[in-house]
Fold this sequence. Notes:
Elements: E1 4-8, H1 20-34, E2 38-44, H2 47-51, E3 56-62, E4 67-73, E5 80-85, H3 108-123, E6 135-139, H4 145-150, E7 158-163, E8 171-172, H5 174-179, E9 193-194, E10 197-199, H6 200-207, E11 210-213, H7 216-221, H8 225-228, H9 232-237, E12 242-244, H10 274-284, E13 294-302, H11 308-318, E14 323-331, H12 333-345, E15 350-354, H13 358-367, E16 370-373, H14 383-390, E17 393-397, H15 400-405, H16 411-416, E18 422-424, H17 429-443, H18 446-457, H19 463-493
Parallel strand pairs: 1-2, 1-6, 2-5, 6-7, 7-11, 11-12, 13-14, 13-16, 14-15, 16-17, 17-18
Antiparallel strand pairs: 3-4, 4-5, 8-10, 9-10
Helix pairs in contact: 1-19, 10-13, 11-12, 11-17, 14-18
The chain binds adenosine-5'-diphosphate (ADP) and alpha-D-glucopyranose.
Alpha-D-glucopyranose binds at residues 19-21, 24, 164-165, 214, 247, 378-382, 401.
Amino acid sequence: MMKKVLFATSEAYPLIKTGGLADVSGSLPAALHALGQDVRILMPGYASAIAAGQFKPVKVLQEDRGIAILEGPLPGSTVPVWLLTHNDYFDRPGNPYLGPDGQPWPDNPERFSLLSHVAVEIAMDRLGLGWKPDLVHCNDWQTGLAPALLADEPNRPATVFTIHNLAYQGVFPYERFLKLHLPSRFWSSEALEFYGQFSFIKGGLVFSDRINTVSPTYAKEIQSPEFGYGLEGLLKHRRARLSGILNGIDANAWNPATDPLIPVNYDVQSIASRRYNKLALQKSFRLNQDETIFVLAWVGRLVQQKGIDLIIDLLPQLMRMPLQMIVLGSGEARYEQTLRQWARLYPDRIAIKLGYDEASAHLVEAGTDLFLMPSRFEPCGLNQMYSQRYGAVPLVRRVGGLADTVADANPIHLGAGTATGIVFDEATADALYQAIGRGFALYQNPMVWRKIQQAGMSKDFSWEFSAQHYLTLYDLALNDRAKAESLLRRAAVS
Ligand code: ADP
Ligand code: GLC
């Protein structure tokens, strides 16, 4: 049955992207659309997002502050997008969450509270857009207040909240709660209070009909203190409503057979052609062009979550091996500086590109031999899936979605021809070193290496299955909602 779904998010590719949330927000609605669902995206109208599409105003909410709704298709699809504009909150350059000093924008609570309030107004069809969703699908803390604000609305839509990363919770001092004029009943540990602070994400976790996260393993992990960041108790309490659905990938944008961002296209039949991309990658990163040398690469946010510090700790040892190391990323200044120093020390062995560069990310996947993801935690992770699709062998830690998507090259998997990467356990430089050593040994055997590449390239990571799982999740949320509503009605009668 066709459902109307409002998909609320703080970023969506190709309008704006800081990480995997944008990939998912750009591709999941399109996949649901293809399954006949009426999905519409609501997100902030950052200046660069407006410029990246074709939008026209459909509703002015407050003229003097430039609060309005713009409408247009998500570029590359027919999924409708509503952009929420605001002169002060969203019309500013740079990162959607961080100021030029690398610190969160001081008015983030106001900015994302507005997003949530507008989600509620659309959900209740109070803006005159003539469309009332059956379900509101919220993503991460930036949209966390919406399920809370909706909770008491009569005839409200069902709500689903997806956790993309529990490490980011939107926690602020109590004063900020007061400033937002939220209902005072929310100031309770059963609602938005979190150890004396004000938590946006709790709005989603406490009040949504259903909660999910982006891999089955992470859904289990977040119920433990190690990964739960203080929310494990609440998540455990709601475990009957909590599930994990693996992210899919945009199989068109990330297809080595058609990718316009790489010099030579190839597929599982023609993996040998990857070598031209390897040479192009080395050239683009100003490394010696040598198709035989073992190339290791890393792409991502330079933050502790991703284990970049483990790689940095290992560089002295790695530089004793015949290999090249490529890093593409942006993030914390301390990692950027250290990496810059190392690249200066070994200009023909270590190459770094600091900043965000979509084309280079594609070239890395098409050219590197090993793709490193030694994450401390990883709700899903997309690059290990892109890597497998591109015949780059992922080397990952056994956590979250990495554990769910990469089959270790152990003797059993190798024997069965199902090995697609290298998986290791401990978050230590030593364990990572051992794993890279295993990769190096496998690389010395071209037949075995090729089999690993082929197995990875043959896997289907498209949204097809996961989008179906979301439909099932939506049904469950609608059921929960209907049951709660009928209980309420019965209580009112008796
Ligand atoms: P996360 O969302 O935690 O950052 P994911 O693996 O889910 O991790 O998604 C990261 C996405 O961002 C991938 O599409 C990856 O290619 C992309 N990405 C990260 N850093 C960069 C960068 N510096 N340049 C280009 N793409 C990047
Ligand atoms: C988060 C997670 C990442 C996940 C992405 C999309 O940013 O860190 O693991 O793939 O969200 O769900």
